[in-house]
């Protein structure tokens, strides 16, 4: 089950479970749409994988299967990707 991490690893922007602006790679590294598109060129800076829209868990399932509260943040920011 997806963790639905609560923030962007690059800019620390909040990404609640219902956010349409969350992007993830296959390892669930999580970024906002702005960082994923403008800084990372659609590639995860951690693994090089493709960043895609994170699925949204239906609200009625969040009570039983809550999103993660563990924040992952890189204060130094994310390297700009040249892959793509």
From TrEMBL:
Organism for this UniProt entry: Ottowia flava
A Pfam short name: DUF1272
Supply the name of the protein.
DUF1272 domain-containing protein
């Amino acid at each position: 089950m997806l963790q639905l991490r609560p923030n962007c690893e690059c800019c620390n922007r909040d990404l609640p479970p219902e956010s349409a602006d969350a992007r993830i790679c296959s390892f669930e590294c999580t970024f906002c749409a702005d960082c994923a598109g403008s800084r990372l060129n659609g590639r995860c800076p951690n693994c090089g994988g493709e960043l895609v829209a994170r699925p949204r868990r239906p609200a009625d399932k969040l009570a039983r299967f809550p999103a993660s509260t563990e924040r992952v943040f890189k204060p130094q920011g994310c390297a700009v990707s040249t892959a793509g």
